Amino acid sequence: MLTTATPILLRKNEAANAGSLQGQAQHRNSEQRAQLSSSQQIADALALVSDCLVPQRLMVRAGDVICQAGQRFDCLYLMNSGFVKIISLSSDGREQVVGLKFRGDWLGFDGIANQRYSCDAIAIDTGEVWAIRYDALLEASLRRPVLLNLLHQAMSREIANDRDSLMSVCTLPADARVADFLRYWADSLAKRGLRTDQIKLRMTRAEIGNYLGMTLETVSRALSRLAKAGLIEFAEGGRRDILIPEVDALRTFIQGGMTPAPALLQ
After folding, report:
1. φ, ψ of residue 53 in degrees (nearest 5)
2. What local confidence, expressed as pLDDT, does residue 89 receive?
């Protein structure tokens, strides 16, 4: 026999579930508004640079070198579209992927101090990059201080991204590190108004491993475990096409800082 407390308990559970769903919807709406704001800020920044300066517009394709370590510094580069990887060379010739750049990102800050670029910037997809003479940018900033503020914001974001990348490499286990890489890629696309439920990785497994301080085999195994855990799926088009059902699920997994539960790996 049902007691009078049972209907009350059911109503409380229903109310709790409704509140949870409402909270999730509000969170998604808040994220969407933030993403639209970020996309608009990037568009506004590009429009400002285009209005105040006369950037040289360069079409690039995968493999094209935009600037090279040791080359004399005279320009900063602003990405209008495409994807770029930043490579640092050690004294013994080893290459290390140290950064990824998306639309609205700047390239070449490493050349300011010593007047020579210290890294290679290489396109990993077809895109457009704007070359902006540094002296012209400084001169224009005197007339339009908002340009200097734009530059400082870009430098600050690069410092923060480098710090977060270092934290990931130093503190997260392999599976969480790969999950964080996918989360970062998806978030970067979202900020530019692009879809995040399916992403095409513009890097090989070996390049991802180089960036994350892991071997190719470790990256492949981590991706397979994430797929078995239901956090990602491989699209039919190829193993560079990754489906991400819920980016929030990746975030939760990363925060846990652990590999998927053994039951999910069987």
Report:
1. -130, 175
2. 85
41-100 tens-digit pLDDT: 999 999 999 999 999 999 999 999 999 999 999 999 999 999 999 999 877 788 899 999
Tokens of 171: 């503190």
Q: Are strands 233-234 and 106-107 parallel, antiparallel or unpaired?
A: unpaired
Spell out, as residue ranges, where the chain has pLDDT lower than 50.
1-2, 24-25, 27, 259, 261-266
The pLDDT assigned to 264 comes to 44
Specify the DSSP class assigned to residue 116. Answer: B
b/e per residue, 141-173, with b = 16+ CB within 10 A? beeeeebeebbeebeeebeebeeebeebeeebe
Closest CA to 195 of 154, 239, 245, 229: 245
First vs last C-alpha separation in the chain = 42
Instruction: Residue 116: count other Cβ atoms within 10 Å of its Cβ.
Output: 15
- Cα distance between residue 232 and residue 216, in whole Å: 18
Fill in the amino acid letter for 213: G
In this predicted structure, what is the pLDDT of residue 212? Answer: 95
Q: Evaluate whether 226 touches 234 at the Cβ level (below 8 Å).
A: no
- What is the per-residue DSSP string for 66-84? EE-TTSBP-EEEEEEES-E
58 beta partners: 129
Which pair of tokens denotes residue 179? 């999950």
Between CA 44 and CA 51, with CA 49 as vertex, the angle to 5 degrees is 90
pLDDT value of residue 27: 45
